Recover the amino acids of this structure.
């Protein structure tokens, strides 16, 4: 369900961009939600594999590690929340 | 998406699905079988990036004038999604190459800069990088300490940058770096080969093979984009309007962060030492951005 939501947020943001409309809020929400969804999915998958989830020969170990960087690069989750809160008119400064 | 669509929808078209199929087949054939080994070896597969370029992936959203397809961002999302499906690192390579490498030149550069840099970036023959984060700055772009000073007809940048995705490859052509001027923060285009442009590379082992660089503390000249990356600052142009060799350069001192080990996010994270090239020559070397090893 999170993956579906991530898809919807991401492609909605792309659609808005292609319509020439403002995407600041949609892009921030897409980036925040999708990267955290990736992290959640990878965390659960690693747990399913138990100890093997931490072994090099198991792909989920790579997925877990790769997912984490997404929450950091190109605007951290904290920055995305700041952008979203600011767009909502909340006093964030 | 068709402009005639009046209801709000972001359903993908048949063309998008065809692109998805093409990229998926490419990713499963050329990337998936090798991704884990590339991670272990901290190998950046330039040949595969070139093939991605030949597929047109780097040019999806750019105008045909510079070799792009004039396509939409939904298509770019499809391409990044399909690469990331098998290997996050290659997805990031495309995302950063387009969004951080070519797009600042396209959106904020002038036509001279676009004509000079975009064709190779849009075709995937070269990669562009963006130097924003500083070793002590984290996400606070407004706290940028790197300074840009106009010296004669050249801009001289003085400062340190970190986590510069897509630099440190043998096909990196430019690094766009943010720096503070007397009028605020602007973005400067620094060609690879300029003394004191990023020369050190380190591997995180996480989603971004050996393409994350730490810039040496040093000086090099550059032209600036017309606009800034952060709010409130102004556009600047080099009086000469052209890129020139560095006017001066001082030897670098690795920061404490550079000397520390690689953060290990997993048992496979490789540990590569950082090497900062002292900048003694005024002549750009041929491939200073090649990762060590």
């Amino acid at each position: 369900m999170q993956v579906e939501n991530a898809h919807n947020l991401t492609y909605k943001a792309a659609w808005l961009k292609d319509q020439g409309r403002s995407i600041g809020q949609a892009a921030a929400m897409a980036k925040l939600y999708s990267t955290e969804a990736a992290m959640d999915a990878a965390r659960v998958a690693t747990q399913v594999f138990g100890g093997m989830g931490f072994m090099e020969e198991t792909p989920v170990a790579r997925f877990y590690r790769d997912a984490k960087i997404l929450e950091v690069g190109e605007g951290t989750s904290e920055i995305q929340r700041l952008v979203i809160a600011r767009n909502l008119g909340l006093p964030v400064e | 998406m068709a402009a005639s669509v009046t209801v709000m929808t972001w359903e993908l078209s048949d063309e998008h699905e065809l692109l998805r199929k093409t990229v998926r087949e490419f990713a499963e054939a050329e990337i998936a079988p090798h991704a884990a080994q590339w991670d272990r070896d901290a190998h950046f597969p330039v040949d595969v990036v070139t093939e991605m370029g030949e597929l047109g992936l780097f040019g999806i959203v750019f105008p045909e004038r510079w070799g792009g397809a004039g396509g939409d961002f939904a298509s770019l999302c499809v391409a990044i999604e399909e690469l990331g499906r098998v290997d996050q690192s290659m997805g990031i390579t495309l995302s950063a190459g387009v969004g951080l490498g070519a797009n600042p030149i396209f959106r904020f550069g002038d036509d001279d800069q676009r004509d000079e840099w975009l064709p190779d970036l849009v075709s995937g023959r070269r990669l562009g990088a963006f130097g924003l984060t500083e070793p002590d700055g984290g996400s606070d772009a407004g706290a940028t300490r790197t300074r840009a000073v106009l010296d004669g007809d050249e801009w001289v940048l003085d400062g340190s940058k970190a986590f510069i995705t897509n630099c440190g490859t043998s096909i990196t052509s430019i690094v766009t770096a943010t720096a503070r001027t007397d009028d605020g923060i602007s973005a400067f285009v620094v060609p690879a080969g300029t003394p004191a442009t990023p020369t050190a590379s380190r591997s995180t082992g996480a989603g971004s093979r050996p393409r994350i660089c730490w810039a040496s503390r040093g000086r090099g000249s550059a032209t600036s984009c017309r606009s800034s990356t952060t709010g409130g600052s102004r556009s600047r142009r080099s009086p000469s309007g052209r890129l020139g060799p560095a006017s001066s350069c001082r030897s670098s001192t690795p920061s404490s962060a550079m000397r520390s080990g690689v953060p290990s996010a997993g048992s496979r994270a490789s540990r590569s030492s950082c090497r900062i090239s002292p900048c003694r020559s005024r002549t750009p070397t041929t491939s200073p951005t090649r990762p060590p090893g």
User: Anything to note?
Assistant: The radius of gyration of chain A is 16 Å. The helical segments of chain A are 2-18, 24-48, 59-70, 77-87.
